Amino acid sequence: MATSRREFIQIGGAGLGAAALGSGLTTKWWGLDPDVVHDPGTDGDQVIPTFCELCFWKCGVLAHVKDGRVTKLVGNPEHPLSRGRLCPRGTGGTGLLYDPDRLKKPLLRKSTKRGGQDFEEVSWEKALDFTAEKLLKIKKECGPDKVALFSHGFGGSFFKHLLFAYGSGNVTAPSYGQCRGPREVGFNLTYGASLGSPEVLDIAHSRCLTLIGSHLGENMHNTQVQDFAQMIAKGGELVVVDPRFSTAAGKARYWLPIRPGTDMALLLAWIHVILGEGLYDRDYVEKNAIGLEELRAHVADKTPEWAFTETTIPASTIVETARFIAGARPASLIHPGRHVTWYGDDVQRSRAIAILNALLGSWGRRGGIFVPTQLNVPKYPVPDYAEKPKTTQDAPDGVVYPFAEEVLSHGVCDATVPGRIMTKGCPVKGWIVYGSNLLQALPQRKNVEEAIQKLDLLVAIDVLPAEIVGYADVVLPEATYLERWDDVAPVPWSEPFLAIRQQVVPPMYESKPGWWIAKELANRLDLGQYFPWESGEQMVTDRLKAGGYDVEKLKAKGVVKGAPVPVRTDEGLELAFHTPSKKIELYSKQMADAGLPPLPPWTRHEQPADGQFRLLFGRTPTHTFGRTTNNRFLSEVYSENEVWLNAKAAKEQGLVHGEIVTLLNQDGVRSQPVKLKVTQRIRPDCVFVVHGYGHTNPGLKFAAGRGMDDQTLVTRIAVDPVAGTTGMSVNFVTIEKAPGTTAAAAKAEA
Amino acid sequence: MSAAKTATKRYAMTVDTRQCVGCKACVLACKAENAVPDGFCRQWIVEEIRGEFPKLSAEIRSERCNHCTDAPCVKNCPTGASHVNEGGVVLVTHHKCSGCKACIAACPYDARFVHPEGYVDKCTFCLHRVQKGLQPACVGVCPTGTLTFGDASDPESAVSAQLRERSSKVNHPESGAGPNVHFLV
User: Closest-CA residue in chain B for A233?
Assistant: First the structure.
């Protein structure tokens, strides 16, 4: 440094500092003044327990309230899903509550074309009357099953109940068909049980955890990440299969940077080695599973040498990792993943993962997959639904997938456009969209927009002006989770417990809790008898009292626990499987009977051409995709996504770190301008972005124009023949410089 | 705790780099607890990636003020605002601080910033919580159990046990400042 520290102080101190330094007397004078430990004063006058809704894991939080304002949110130590700790999003609930861009009043669209952003503020009375009138008209003219509910989030329960009472069973969520659906189907077919959310994984006790594209630590489901860290602390090892050097890969004993689209080859080769070398749990498989010999024959030619040619993972590494994984059994867990709609054979890949877990004997075992327990809360006594709710799948010529367990969101979308899948009868006429930004959640945006324009009614119930809200006819502003009572949450977990969501502060603006909106709609639909409660609080307390729970204790603690129940064999659990054979079905007769491959087949997926990159997307710890990207508090640490590109590939393309590029997909669709992140941490044949950016609704004043939306580029999908879910990692892009565009300029343009 | 122990108390923190996933829960919990103004954070995450694809290694560190034993910020503070408080925790007394930034220049860790209200601000080890028997906010929130806080002069403390049993390092040991945030490797 050219300037000495003393000189710097004299310059920087500008008078007072310099004088103080120069005079011992002054310093002493200051010294007479006592030093202070400042208390920032964020402790609440009141601390109210509730549970989080920044994602869907349902962690217990304690809300500190001071002078009517929520000052901070901390983990509830009593709650089994938070154990006193929170992920970054959990702390950021205040950023949602106090988001200046919140929907403040009910809105009605003025023009005839949807998406024009021309709304007028109306009274709740008018908004609800309008909605009910349209719903009654659709029911009368086309039948109740022509209305669908897209729902994401715990508060959706009131609207599901409303829709069933109305007579429609079309309750759907992209979190199934565009996310975890194939996994649930694959495990259900194999074990007769699915994994749910939170997933029933005993990671804390695993000795080896294998992640297939699952990026724990970036995917920040609180309890699961806590368990993951505990496992590492206890010396558990990781095998990470990911084209990207994820956070988890950085902690792994083995990182296998697999060629995207070839995971099935690796799984089959691992099964080949584990069976061939007799490394599987013979006793467990003999006792609990059927179809071993068929499986053995099926993988006979799936050698590590063969798998190398598909995956680019050396055969010796495949053998070594297979032995390593099997060496830790039964506390060796192949993580089933969460977002698994990748290539269209996703149920089969999930089946291969389920089968591998069976060979390791991990289901029902310590360090594997546990069998959850749940507390009972009696249902609120309401009349039976007038008739069994109908779904579009009951339609005479609807496309039916044999093992889809839920109504498919993109199926509803297709059933909305005359002639797309339904050539007879009336298409779907009304959508109620609760907390689900369909324009960023569903693939093939053009199809979604076309469906939206065909509707007679689009109702959006939301907290923020997501893109879908801009397309609605009527917008009903919901109160945030901190401002409302929701239903009781008896979560299936390793210990029985239930938690309540209670109002922490009164709803701001004219927003209303979901229970109130649903009840008011029900009253107008002549369905008031299904919503007999005076308030959400009354409904919850009545249910709790009927179950014999201590309501006051629950309000004070937020959570109540039941007596422990064995959830693993080492705790005394007896294994039982709810498949047709009452065994683990390595070979699936159910699938064979439906004309589907009964053992997971290898399918070679198209690979990108030279100069093209496969588009992959995922999570960052601070955000729950587009739901939180407008949250200014969370955005202090992550405020826009970037495109990850391999350093060597970047050099070949003549691209440099930090420059602004656009992605152009195989169908000519171009992304918004986005920053390039040149990195060693990804294979040269793919790019990666964090999902949920590139908002276009100007109402999201912070998020609009930041980063790019990956979903716009998902114009091609691979539909899974087993579950009808949509594989979306099948789009290829080229990268182009965005000349003269800086991030700031791009934002200004938007 | 005995009077003698209190007198020699030396608060310190360990950061387990094997467990840290860099999620920034610590950064945000600190912001909330300490009402840190928009645009500023008292903590930060460093991700160090070494090597070339596919031979890579990573280290993730949750970083903050090191509450140095021989703190350059305290030595360079002309007004006495930066001072050593209980257990060696380095604090800034707001009303004594002239915002001259001498401490910012002196800090080897770039841990300080000027608060919009004019004084220099930084991590306090949440001494206001510690004095009530609570953990610092970052330690309390951390989902991975990466952070441990305690009295390094007490051999019975968790921090002492960690430093005894695990290999550790500090940032910029060459500064000679005697940092009290230790990274377990």
Answer: B19
| A166/A189 same-domain check | no
Of B34, B127, B144, nearest to A37 by CB-CB distance is B127
Distance from CA of A145 to the nearest CA of B (A): 43
* pLDDT tens string A294-318: 999 999 999 999 999 999 999 999 9
Q: Are A281 and A418 members of one domain?
A: no
Name the residue type at position A385. Y
DSSP structural state of residue A179: I
State how far residue A690 is from chain B, nearest Cα, in angstroms.
14
**Is residue A69 in a domain?**
no
A255 to chain B: which residues are within 8 Å by CB? 54, 56
Task: Tell me if A257 and B51 make a contact (CB, 8 A cut-off).
Answer: no
The reply to whether A4 and A139 lie within a common domain is: no
Residue at B76 is within a domain: no
Residue in this structure with the two tokens 């991990």, named with its chain if needed: A362
Residue A707: give the domain boundaries: 613-749
- Phi, psi values for residue A120, rounded to 5°: -120, 140
pLDDT of residue A17: 39
Q: What is the ipTM of this complex?
A: 0.96
Count: domains in chain A: 4
Does residue A345 sit in helix, strand or coil?
coil
Nearest Cβ partner of A74 from B53, B141, B146? B141
Q: Which CATH number characterizes residue B136's domain?
A: 3.30.70.20
In a domain, B109, yes or no: no
Do residue B51 and residue A73 have CB atoms under 8 angstroms apart? no
> Which token pair is A115?
């998406």
Same domain, A409 and A359: no
Region B65-75: mean pLDDT is: 97
* Angstrom distance (rounded) from CA A626 to CA A708: 11
Q: Cα-flanking dihedrals φ and ψ of residue B50, to 5°?
A: -120, 150
Q: Give the Cβ contact number of residue B98 at 10 Å.
A: 22
Task: Identify whether A138 is part of a domain.
Answer: yes
DSSP class per residue in chain B: --HHHHHT--EEEEEETTT-----HHHHHHHHHTTPPTT--S-EEEEEEEEETTEEEEEEEEE-----TT-HHHHH-SSS-EEE-GGG-EEE-GGG-----HHHHH-TT---EE-TTSSEE---TTHHHHTTTPPPHHHHH-TT--EEEEETT-TTSHHHHHHHHS-EE-S-GGG-S---EEEE-
- A111, part of any domain: yes
A555 occurs within a structural domain: no
Q: Are A408 and A148 in contact (CB under 8 A)?
A: no
Question: Of the candidates B184, B172, B174, B185, which has an alpha carbon nearest to the alpha carbon of residue B66?
Answer: B172
Give CA–CA dist A190/A66, Å, rounded: 52
User: What CATH number does the domain containing A168 carry?
Assistant: 3.40.50.740
Any domain includes B78: no
Q: Is A659 exposed, middle or buried (0-12, 13-18, 19+ CB in 10 A)?
A: middle
Of A452, A573, A493, which Cα lies nearest the Cα of A115?
A452
Euclidean distance between CA atoms A16 and A3, whole angstroms: 20
Q: Decide if B184 touches A, using CB distance below 8 A.
A: no
Query: For A520-544, how does the pLDDT look when each residue is reduced to its tens digit (9 = 90+)?
Result: 999 999 999 999 999 999 999 999 9
Counting beta carbons within 10 angstroms of the beta carbon of residue A136, is it exposed (0 to 12), middle (13 to 18) or buried (19 or more)? middle
Residue B33 lies in a domain: yes
Tokens 């509803």 sit at which residue? Answer: A412
Helix locations, A76-156, DSSP H: 88-91, 93-97, 124-142
Domain count, chain B: 1
Same domain, A167 and A221: no
A347 and A231 co-located in one domain: yes
Say what the pLDDT of residue A399 is.
63
